[in-house]
Amino acid sequence: MIYPVTIIGHPTLRKRAEEVDQNYPDLEKIIDNMFETMYESDGVGLAAPQINKSIRVIVIDGAPMAEDDPDLKDFKKVLINPEMVDEWGEEKLFNEGCLSIPNIREDVNRPSEIKLKYYDRDFNLKEEEFKGTQARIIQHEYDHLEGILFTDRISPLRKKILKSKLLGISKGKFKVSYRTVLGKK
């Protein structure tokens, strides 16, 4: 099942998502549907708040970006209840976009390396370090679990310039090939 993607202005995108356990109803099905939704929407990552589920679940498949970054070729992950343990390294600018903020791309500064604790799909506890684009994808999706959007991390001047566009998007003034859902007014 392909979920509609929640769009900026939707209240679920601004909430801190709740942890889940192995008994969370239909978790396997939700994860499968999240991957399906992400592929249908041409994304490389998707956090549960983006499908209007305020739970701490992320799916990632970096393969579509592997031509530009070979480290992403086999970078496919399910992150359940992730916890950012540490971020370090040189901060780097990278042009980011988001399925929940269609047709907007901006340069975002993020640390180049992270350490993450999470449960995998089988609820095995993992602690791993990631760097480069892998770290960036995780940081972007992790922000969704914290109620943060990538536009919160851009300069005040860029935010001011984008304000009317973002407001328009929140009211449905955009075109995409995937299903979406706006916040209730």
Automatic annotation (TrEMBL):
Catalytic residues in the record: 141
Enzyme class: hydrolase
Cofactor note: Binds 1 Fe(2+) ion.
Recorded coiled-coil stretches: none
InterPro entries: Peptide_deformylase, Peptide_deformylase_sf
GO molecular function: metal ion binding; peptide deformylase activity
Signal peptide stretch: none
Entry-linked Gene3D superfamilies: Peptide deformylase
EC number, UniProt record: 3.5.1.88
Catalytic activity as recorded in UniProt: N-terminal N-formyl-L-methionyl-[peptide] + H2O = N-terminal L-methionyl-[peptide] + formate
Entry keyword set: Hydrolase, Iron, Metal-binding, Protein biosynthesis
Keyword DNA damage recorded: no
Cofactor annotation: Fe(2+)
Binding-site list for Fe cation: 98, 140, 144
Keyword Electron transport assigned: no
Superkingdom of origin: Bacteria
GO BP of this protein: translation
TM ranges: none
Protein family membership: Belongs to the polypeptide deformylase family.
Annotated function: Removes the formyl group from the N-terminal Met of newly synthesized proteins. Requires at least a dipeptide for an efficient rate of reaction. N-terminal L-methionine is a prerequisite for activity but the enzyme has broad specificity at other positions.
PANTHER family referenced in this protein's UniProt entry, alphabetically: PEPTIDE DEFORMYLASE
Protein name per UniProt: Peptide deformylase
Lineage, top ranks: Bacteria, Pseudomonadati, Bacteroidota, Bacteroidia, Bacteroidales
